[in-house]
Amino acid sequence: MTLPDTKSREPKQARSRQSFEKTIEAALALLQERGNDEFTLADVSARSGVSIGSIYARFQGKDELLRVAHGRKMDDIDAVSTHLFEPLPTRPDAALESVAREAVDLIIDVLRRYADILRPFMLRATQDETIAQRGAASHAALAGHFAGVLGKWPGGFLGQAEIDWCFNVVYSVVARRLGLGSTMEGSGTLDWPEIAEKLAGMVASYLVAGPRDTTDA
């Protein structure tokens, strides 16, 4: 997947760079506070202290500003996700459910940590292909981290298709609980440890059964 270049107009001079960064930070702050993108560049200008003229000198309009801000935030999330998943050790005697719980806990950690900014961006992705593609790339990276943890389990071969299915279920349940996606309303009343326990049990039970032959289905 070829992702759009969102950095081509970043200024080189320190003063212009500062205004550029303030504009992005203001847009992200407004998104997070309001939970949607229903604000104007005038709002961004007032929040950042950067003039409208200076904003238009760096961004063609609000759409481009949001795309750049989204790319910046996805880079941050990708870096944090990589950092969180990397230190997990391989334990020869670990039960599959224990390994699954580690992976599930980290998915929950990442999504809860960034829920307030992911929510408005996920809503916008339904009408902005650039944001949708960049979000899909981060989703794939997180799926890779999840698979990497489960792939360390020494108890036997786990099918990639089955691991991918488990990730999609885990991600969907957590995202729904946080109100991410097409709705801002969360669902369910279970607390996070209970959710993690149930999801880890589901993952372990599904994976231990092995690959499915669906040719006769």
The percentage of residues in β strands lies in under 5%
Mean pLDDT: 87
Q: Count every helix, treating DSSP H or I runs of 4 or more residues as helices.
A: 9
Corresponding CATH architecture of the domain at 70-208: Orthogonal Bundle
Helix content: 55-70%
Class inferred from helices and paired strands: mainly alpha
- Poorly predicted runs: none
Task: Give the distance, in angstroms, between the N- and C-terminal Cα atoms.
Answer: 32 Å
Strand-and-helix sequence, N→C? HHHHHHHHH
Q: How many strands in all?
A: 0
State the shape. elongated
Q: CATH top level of the domain at 70-208?
A: Mainly Alpha
Radius of gyration: 20 Å
In the CATH hierarchy, the third-tier topology of the domain at 70-208 is known as Tetracycline Repressor, domain 2
Largest sheet: none
Fold and architecture overview:
With 217 residues, this protein is mainly α. The chain has a domain at 70-208: Tetracycline Repressor, domain 2 (Orthogonal Bundle), CATH 1.10.357. It contains 9 helices and no strands. Helix 1 (14-34) crosses helix 4 (62-85), helix 5 packs across helix 8 and helix 8 runs antiparallel to helix 9. The longest helix has 24 residues, at 62-85. The protein is elongated. The two termini are 32 Å apart. The mean pLDDT is 87.
